[in-house]
Amino acid sequence: MKIKPILPFLLCSAVSFNASAQKNDAKTFGFAAHQTKLLLNETAKAKAAAARPNLFSPRALDGSGNLLIVSPKDWCSGFFAGNLWFLYEYSGDKFWKEQSEPFTVVMEAEKTNGGTHDMGFKLYNSVGNAYRLTHEQKYKDDIIEAAKTLITRFNPTIGSLKSWDNRKEWKFPVIIDNMMNLELLFEATKLSGDSSFYKIAVTHANTTLKNHFRADNSSYHVIDYDPGTGQVAHKQTHQGFADSSAWARGQAWGLYGYTMCYRETGNKIYLQQAEKIAKYIFGNPQMPADLVPYWDYDAAKQGNQPRDASAAAVTASALYELSTYSTNGKAYKKKADKIINSLNKSYQPQPDSARGFLLLHSTGHKPANSEIDVPIIYADYYYLEALLRQKRLADKKPVINAVGTLKN
Ligand code: GLY
Known about the structure:
CATH class: Mainly Alpha
Order of helices and strands: HEEHHHHEEEHHEEHHHHH
Number of strands: 7
Family: Belongs to the glycosyl hydrolase 88 family.
Organism: Mucilaginibacter pankratovii
Helix content: 40-55%
Largest sheet: 3 strands, antiparallel
Bound molecules: glycine
CATH topology: Glycosyltransferase
GO molecular function: hydrolase activity
Pfam families: Glyco_hydro_88
Structural class: mainly alpha
Protein name: Glycoside hydrolase family 88 protein
Number of helices: 12
Strand content: 5-15%
Shape: globular
């Protein structure tokens, strides 16, 4: 019997797979670049018409399709700068660097704003990406200064960074989202050599691991602590359907946060926690077939609910990273690819619509009747990040481009 030569066939398949992956990348990033130019224009128009001069960065569309732009104080102020840096990272085109810089420079003043825990979202996604890609000293100094400011919110009795001030129902609320701000602290230790940022990040991650998670590995949104004793006072929600429910974006923040903590510490407990969260998310019977969740897994039991494309984008980005650490990596990569395919296929607006946003169907704060089933800037941010991670894996590069040059 004649044996068919299989190697040339395998080589041809690999080449054609790579060629088709490249074609897909070019199509998706081409769409992203086209839309983002529109969003730059729409943002400039909104700024010119704005009542306050400090409104500068796009956040979302309202239910009527109007563009909402925000000031540097808003927790969403750093995402658009990040999107522009991601487009620069993908293309190497100086045009995107020139667009990114003004949106980044405005954020630098926020490094001394100690009234918020959202320092990571604001500074790390803007200035942090700028430093990663340019290595400019001023951005490095900003990151360290921002970390110094963020740790003023740490309470050693509790072992956590405080999320929100001035909430009459809570004394020391800590939300699962706060895991996302730890990356800034880990980076600040690497840049400054001062280990106190790292130690606080680890302590916060450990306290969250102890108190935020339920037996089924879903997480509460808000844990309120007694600042005097450090004991848990309340386990509640703010943006979820119920105190006992699993708010979809909260689960995604946890997945991303513990994956990143494993990267930064090598502590297997964090890897296991990320794996447990992934098991909860993908084992949930309310997860739709396209893997873009309803805004809250328990709300979904009540019948049709709005989706949250932002939760899907954060999850995909986290899973690409987790796939490189876990023995279950192949399955995670497959899930991430499936999410990205769904977003590419059914959640992108038509080109030249949605004022230039990249994804439709995110849900910001359903209980407050705010930003429901609309484009929101952080969905676009994590979508672009996930696309870059997907591409790096396809190119056989480390999933995280932490080195700081475009050539890596
Ligand atoms: N950090 C707020 C949110 O995820 O909506």
